Amino acid sequence: MLDPLVNLRLSELTGRSDINDDYTDMLLILRKPDDFFKSPSSDSDVVINVHTGVLRVASSYFNKAIDSLLEKRLKESGHLNIGAPLQLVLDTQYPSVFQRIIYYIYKNDYQNMNEETRFLVPLYSESVRFDLSELKNGVLRMIRSQASLEDLANLASAAESAGELELASECGRILSDSAYAVLSSNLHVNFGLTAMKSFLSSDNLQLDEVETFAALCYYMDTNKNLHSPYSTNHLGKQEKDLVKNIRFCSMSPKALSEFRCDSVNTFLLDGALRILNKTQSKPRVFPWNENDEYKTIKYNGLFPIMLVRSGKYQLTDRDHNSSNCKLVTPQVNKKVPSTYLAHTHGTEREGCEFFWAFQVSKTQSGKIGLGLTVSSDQPLDELSRSVFSTMSKSRKIVFFYDFAQNKFKSGYIDNTSSTEIRSLWTYDSNMNRSVYKLKTGDIVHLRTSVTFSCVNLQLSVVNSNFNEKFTIPISSKRTLGNLIKRAAILTSPFVMTYDVGDALVLPGLSSNFKF
C-alpha cells in the first residue's frame, strides 16, 4: 500500500527554514470523525510529516501512540523497517486547529501565543485530549485575557459545544456582572444550557427580577430545543431547570399574578408562599442602598430600581413602590433647594468584568458622580495611610467621575458618614477631555475591567460623544474561576450627588443597545 501523500509540509506549517522535510519519520494524518471509516487515504485528510522524537517530548499521549505503532509494526513484519515512516491517524473535528497545535509544539513557546477567540476552545479541548499541558496552560492564559463581552459569550457557546462545561459555566458567571449589556444585545441567545444556568443563578445579576424572567422566556422562545412557558407545549426538565433559577419571591404579588399560567404556576405559588412567610431567597445585588440621604423606590418587587436624593426631607405622599416610578419621578417635599455632597453605594460583589447602566430620572444641574467602590486592606498611597487606618472596618476606596467638574476623583468612605469622602483627590484632566453636563433622560454606561495590576474604568453617555477612561492603580490579589482564574475585585456601584431631589433609575433592557 502506498503511503499517503504529504499535503502540508512541516517546514511550511512551522515557517522554519531549518527543518528538512526529508528527515521526518512519521506521517500525521488528521481525519474528521465522519471520514474515519472511509478509505485508508481519504482526499479530505490533512497529512503532515513530523518527527516522532518531537511529539514524544511534547505529550505522553503521543509517546504511547508511537510505542503502540512500533509494537504493531514489529509484530506484523518482524522488524521495525526504520526507513518507512510511521503513520498515526488522528480523528479530530478541528484539523485546522490541530495544525496550530503542531505549529506551537515546534515553536516551543507557549508564553506568547496569539489566536482568534473562535479557536480558543477547540485549542483548549484538543490540548486536554492529547495531554499537552503546556499548550493547555498557554490557551488558558489567552482565555483569561478576554475582556470583550462578545468574546466571552462566544467562548461560553463554543465551550458548551465542545463539552467543556466547567469553562462554559465560568463564562456564564463572569457575564452575569454585565447582565444589562448581555441581555440588551442578545448575547445570551446563543448560550448553552450550562452557561445560561450559571448566568441565571448568579447573585450578581443587577436587574429587576421581572426583566430577568422576561429575558429567560425570550431565550427559551428563540431556542429550537426549548419551549417557552407561554407556548402551547409543557415544560420539560431542561426548561424547569432554567425557570427554577428565577427568584419569583423577589417579585411583587401583583407581578406574580400577571405571570400566571399552567407551566409556571407551581413556581409562582412557591414565590408567593415565601413572600407570605417572609422566607424569601437571598435577593440579588442592589445597584444602591438607602441611607440618611437617599431613598430607594421599588416597583414590582424587592429590587430598588430608583434612587432619590431626599436629604432630610420626605418624599411626596403616595405609594411610590406600587406605581411606575419610571413614568413619574417622586418629588421631595422641600421649599428651598439644598446643595451639598452625599453618596451611597450598592451591594458588594466579586467580579472581573462589569457593565452597569444608570439613567438620570431627574436632575437640577447635572451634578452627579458615578463610579465604583473597591474593598481593600491597603490605602491608595502612603500620604493617606493615616486617614485610612483610622476609619471603620466598613471603609472602601472609591473612584468616580464627577460630572460637576468633569474630572475623575478618588477617596475613602465608610458607613459612619454619607456626606463625607475622606482624602478626596482630583485627578488632573487632559486638555482634550470632554466637558459634558448630565441632563434628565441621559443614560450612562459604566464599564469596569479588572487585571492583576490595575482596574480599567470607562464611562460613556448614550447618544453623545462623551467617553472617558481611567486606569485605577489598584492591584488584584483575588481570582475568579477554577479554569479561567481571572483577576477579580470586591466592588459595588458608587453614586454621589450634590442636589437634593436628583434621581437615578435603572434603564430597561434596550433593543437599540450598542457597545
Key structural traits:
515 residues; 18 strands; alpha+beta; SKP1/BTB/POZ_sf; BTB/POZ_dom; BTB domain-containing protein; single chain; Jelly Rolls
Could you list the spans in which at least 5 consecutive residues all have pLDDT below 50?
none
Overall form: elongated
Distance between the termini: 58 Å
How many DSSP H or I helices?
15
Strand fraction equals 15-25%
Task: State the helicity in percent bands.
Answer: 25-40%
Number of domains: 3
CATH architectural designation of the largest domain? Sandwich
Number of strands: 18
CATH fold type of the largest domain: Jelly Rolls
Structural Rg:
29 Å
Oligomer: single chain
Q: What is the CATH domain class of the largest domain?
A: Mainly Beta
Structural summary, described in words:
The protein starts with 9 loop residues before the first helix and ends in a 10-residue tail after the last strand. The longest helix is centred in the N-terminal third of the chain and has 18 residues, at 60-77. The protein has helices at 10-14, 52-58, 60-77, 95-107, 117-129, 133-144, 149-161, 165-175, 179-184, 193-201, 209-222, 237-243, 253-258, 265-276, 385-390; strands at residues 26-31, 46-50, 86-91, 294-298, 304-309, 339-345, 349-351, 353-362, 368-374, 396-402, 407-413, 422-426, 443-450, 455-461, 467-472, 478-480, 486-499, 503-505. It is 30% helix and 22% strand. α5 (117-129) packs parallel to α7. The protein is built from 15 helices and 18 strands. The strands form three sheets. Strands 6, 7, 9, 10, 11, 12, 16 and 17 form an eight-stranded antiparallel beta sheet that branches. With 515 residues, the protein is of the alpha+beta class. β10 and β11 (407-413) form a beta hairpin. Residues 24-114 form the BTB domain. InterPro entries: BTB/POZ_dom, SKP1/BTB/POZ_sf. It comes from Theileria orientalis. This is BTB domain-containing protein.
